[in-house]
Amino acid sequence: MTNIEVPKELREEAKQHDMYLHPIDKDTYELFFGPQHMATENFSIILKMDGNRIERAIVNPGFLHRGFEKLAEQRPYFTNIALILRICVPESDVPENIYSMAVDEIVGWEVPERAQWIRTVVLEMARMSAWMFWIMGFGNEIGLYTAGQWAAAYRERFMRLFEELTGGRVYHIYTVPGGVRRDIPGDKWLRQLRDTVEYLKGKMKDFDEILFDNYIMFERTEGVGVMDRKFALKHAVTGPNLRATGVPYDVRKDDPYLYYPELEFEVPVLKEGDSLARVLVRRYEMEQDLYILEQLLDMGPPSGPYMVKDARLKALPRFKPPKGDAYAHVESTKGDFGVYVVSDGTHKPYRAHFRGPSQSHGVTVLEELLKGARLADVPVILKTLDNCPPDIDR
Amino acid sequence: MDMNEKKVEEKVENAQPVEETRPELPDTKEGRLVREIVEKAPYAEGSVRRERRVEFRVPAERIHEFLELASEKFEMLMQISTVDWLKEKEFELVYQLWSVSEGIHAFVRTRIPRDDAKLPTVMDIWPVAETYEREAHEFFGIIFEGNPRLGPFILEPREYEKHPLRKDFNTIGYVKVIYGEDFDRYDESKTNYVI
Amino acid sequence: MSEMKEMRNENDGVISYELQEFKLFEPLFKWARKKSLWIVAFCTGCGGIEMPPLATARYDFERFGIMPNPAPRMGDLFLITGYVTPKTLKRIIITYEMMQDPKYILAHGSCPINGGVYWDSYNVVKQLDKYIPIDVAIAGCMPRAEAVMDGIMEIMRKIEDGTADGWKRYRENYEYYRKNQDELFGEGWREKDARRWLAWI
Q1: Who has greater pLDDT, C191 or B141?
Q2: CA–CA min distance B165, chain A (Å)
Q3: pLDDT per residue as tens digits for the range A247-278
Q4: Is the pLDDT of residue A324 over 80?
């Protein structure tokens, strides 16, 4: 690009009419990518461009910062559930669950079997609906809109199931410390869930044909945004992005929680580390998640209470756990989602610090991967990393 | 509101760290790992909290040295959590490490004084620390020496100067100043304010 | 509010929005505006997650002539999907001013009305109506897709009535809105920040 001479007349005209943002006689210019952009979801990247190549990218987050960690210090333990689930919008059950797990650990509660089973089902359903959301975003970014339309429609099936179970479509406020808020509606709900799982299993083949086995997808993603194993570990990349570089790290296997020790599933790993590998790892994980849901339904919900029995639960706003701290994390579709809760013995948490997976792969990693990429690769890299801005901002 | 604050104060006063003798390390993979690291770094205190959770206490001046040693076993730095202990006039920094090879999570704790909050950066060990340190700097005002990108990151410059996650930052007072007093749900006369 | 009323009375009949020679076709224009609302695709908050279901098979708002479009210059309807932080509000104001008249704002969720669950947060704008004019607000967190559809229907009805006049209010009371914006962001934010994003401002 540097060799092209801009005609003198054009340059003068541009200066007169103030048509260009930045002087045209410079080789590089500054491009603001987002926040008003479909791919970024209210997140901004400042790109220093040299023609069509990106010289340097600077991530500018903070458009979604609400100060959750400060607000959590101002609210009682159980009220916080209604607040902190808003950290991760596409799978709001993840923050609920990690927070509940951390409080459970501080109090020392053994969550009843039935509640654990329900929590596992809810987490897996959240994962499936988040996958559908991801297919939608990714399909739209690379111009395969049909896949996106289908995925959004299939996601609605999970939304309907969530609605019947919890009463909410997007925000469920369902998992609480000590168990879950209410029981499964009945066998009919379980049958509906099984139908949905069966239905989606059949639809995975259609997704293969239209998206995952599509020439356009291969062309857009192969060799784009490559990272190697060492880079990924140093940058604390987790989830499918790490597994696409050859590290079989999955919180469900390595730090098992809830019902996962009793389930059989594989952790798909690819070695290439490029965008294509990240897409394909996600594709295999969808299959595994459907398989996990099927296993859970085959086991059936264990009998027993769905909430722990404790006298302290009678006055929820005044519920006080003992002093202590705990770190809990689960595997979300974006990666390892963790929380560090500190209790000082009062009825409000002293500190709740969240670790969103996008905090690592959405800032430094994104900046590194965008270096030298083309402008058209930006949405592909953003979507294959599965960047979730509310994780970073909180 | 007043009552709650009083209670918090009392509790914080009680929360003085208790002197404890070094516990015996169990003969598990966690215990072996802690022993191995503590042998190499005798200035650190190590203990096993439960299965897959270990804990180290390190003096602030040797934190970089310790983390460099620990990074051989713990490949990933998951988060740097800061806790503001207002009554003790200290910040507690908890480096959350995860070992992919062993499957162990480690808390590495260190304490620094609140009015002179300075630490060496660990960017050279884990490049991702840049983000975490920027965040800790922005919300608590801790200075990480050697990190070139400290400054407004998530917040706008006005909020950045206040370091809003510090315990002495009065949120409701600030909200009233910035956004006006005409928002509902705030009642000063309510002593036991529960949201 | 009294301040606003005074200013409006003062300006009554001063600014004419309709061309006199096309007055006859005004009902036709209103019908056309109502039936072709293009949404500025700017996901400002968590409500953005209800946009894909609305745009796709289950709720499908394209049958009402509604379409998301990334370009603010082509937009008619600005959906404020959820809470607004000051950092976003700057971009919202600039985007809103870039839109062509007539333009409408639909505030989505409790947060733009009074702060919602973030009523005591230091970084969330409590009353959005002080900074930009809102035509219809939907309460709830998060409003169901049906509620958003209902809000859009309300906007359509208001366009037909001629009561969706947020863009007129913004022009007439520009001083009032500008004063509030400057109070929140500090004087000179347009010159300092916005000029960096868009050089022609």
Answers
A1: B141
A2: 6
A3: 888 888 888 888 888 888 888 898 888 889 99
A4: yes
Three-state DSSP at C193 gives helix
User: Is A83 an 8 Å CB contact of chain C?
Assistant: yes
Q: Best mutation site among C38, C40, C49, C90 for testing chain A: the one with the most A CBs within 10 Å?
A: C49
**How far does the CA of residue A384 sit from the closest CA of chain B (Å)?**
19
**Number of structural domains in chain C:** 1
Candidates C57, C120, C200; nearest CB to A149? C57
A230 touches chain B (CB under 8 A): no
Distance CA C85, CA B159 (A): 12
In this complex, the residue of C95, C117, C123 whose CB is nearest that of residue A83 is: C117
pLDDT score recorded for residue A141? 84
Number of neighbours of residue A153 by Cβ within 10 angstroms: 18
C188 located within any domain? yes
The hierarchical CATH code for the domain A68-393 is 1.10.645.10
Q: Enumerate the residues of chain B whose CB falls inside 8 A of the CB of residue C115.
A: 179, 183
Chain C's closest residue to A388, CA to CA, is C46
A59-84 per-position pLDDT tens digit: 888 888 888 888 888 888 888 888 88
**One-letter amino acid identity for A75?**
R
Which pairs count as long-range contacts for B131-135, CB under 8 Å and 24+ apart, including other chains? Answer: B131/A359, B131/A360, B131/A363, B131/A364, B132/A359, B132/B77, B132/B79, B132/B80, B133/B80, B135/A359, B135/B80
pLDDT tens column, C94-153: 888 888 878 899 888 888 888 888 888 888 888 888 888 898 988 888 888 888 888 888
**What domains can you pick out in chain B, each with its CATH number?**
2-164 (3.30.460.80), 167-195 (no CATH)
Which chains share 3+ C-beta pairs under 8 angstroms with A? B, C
Q: Touching C: which chains, 3+ CB pairs < 8 A?
A: A, B
Q: What is the ipTM of this complex?
A: 0.83
Domain ranges of chain A: 68-393
